[in-house]
């Protein structure tokens, strides 16, 4: 099903590699302005699903529409230019400044494309995005000298450079200390307010890393969806325990979630 507001629509999708079903029967519908969290244990298939929605992999069976284009009937490289994909493990080896790295989001390349130069307007937009992620102090800093948290925020600015309608965030808080994680989550909440038609999917296995502005959740286990829908309906003690195959109790405080092992009640 695709509607004028559809950003992602998958219909009974399987993805098979080396004879193994990495994803099975995935049917998902994501609209503009929705912010999804994709949760699952190690090896559940989260990155595989994200790589398909990021136009890096085709489904083996079923159909996938991203931004109105059906995978298999569209130039994947061209489609990728409209999707912001943030992977904190993304390597940048060239000694570029933060501003330069953000500008490479326009060409979606690890370095500046030879003979390409940004316009004054593009540089101004890069600076605006850098500021909106609280990185203005670091705009001229060299990439290798930044911390992991600063890299994470700069990579989000980079992904937004091409004005994507879909933002994919693959474990953006990995390796961040407490303050850096909180700054990243605040930046994401602010971004979602600033760009109301943007849709996003954030992958994590930690409930503490879910931004308060998250609207929907999808839980996967062994490549299958076990629950999906509005975040408050999906993130329940029962669903999360099933997803991670462990008795987990979850609570929500001021919009954020906390998870801990459920201790069985003692009798008497
Ligand atoms: N090309 C491939 N061929 C065969 N199996 C693969 C291939 N790529 C990934 N897998 C397997 O698919 C499963 C899902 O991997 P995926 O990386 O999507 O999981 P994940 O949920 O992102 O896990 P994690 O939380 O550990 O990052 C894993 O068991 C992985 O080993």
UniProtKB/TrEMBL annotation:
GO molecular function (one): ATP binding
UniProt KW Nucleotide-binding keyword: yes
Domain ABC transporter as annotated: residue spans: 8-247
Entries under SMART domains matching the protein: AAA (SM00382)
One Pfam family linked to the record: ABC_tran
Keywords attached to this entry: ATP-binding, Nucleotide-binding, Transport
Keyword Transport: yes
Domain of life: Bacteria
Protein's UniProt name: ATP-binding cassette domain-containing protein
Organism: Rhodococcus jostii
């Amino acid at each position: 099903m695709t509607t004028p507001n559809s950003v992602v629509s998958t219909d009974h999708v399987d993805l098979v590699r080396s004879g193994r079903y990495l994803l099975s029967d995935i049917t998902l519908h994501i609209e503009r302005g929705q912010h999804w969290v994709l949760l699952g244990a190690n090896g559940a298939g989260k990155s595989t699903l994200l790589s398909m929605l990021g136009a890096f992999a085709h489904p083996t069976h079923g159909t996938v529409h991203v931004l109105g284009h059906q995978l298999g009937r569209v130039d994947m490289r061209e489609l990728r230019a409209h999707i912001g994909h943030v992977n904190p493990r993304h390597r940048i080896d060239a000694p570029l400044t933060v501003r330069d790295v953000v500008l490479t989001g326009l060409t979606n390349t690890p370095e500046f494309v030879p003979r390409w130069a940004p316009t004054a307007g593009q540089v101004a937009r890069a600076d605006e995005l850098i500021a909106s992620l609280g990185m203005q102090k670091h705009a001229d800093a060299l990439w290798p000298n930044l911390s992991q948290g600063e890299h994470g925020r700069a990579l989000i600015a980079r992904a937004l450079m091409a004005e994507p309608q879909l933002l994919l965030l693959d474990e953006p808080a990995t390796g961040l200390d407490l303050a850096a994680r909180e700054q990243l989550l605040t930046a994401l909440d602010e971004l979602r307010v600033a760009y109301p038609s943007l849709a996003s999917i954030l992958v994590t296995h930690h409930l503490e890393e879910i931004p308060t502005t998250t609207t929907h959740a999808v839980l996967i286990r062994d490549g299958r969806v076990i629950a999906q829908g509005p975040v408050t309906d999906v993130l329940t003690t029962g669903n999360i325990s099933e997803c991670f195959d462990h008795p987990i109790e979850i609570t929500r405080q001021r919009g954020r979630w906390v998870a801990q092992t459920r201790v069985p009640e003692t009798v008497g």
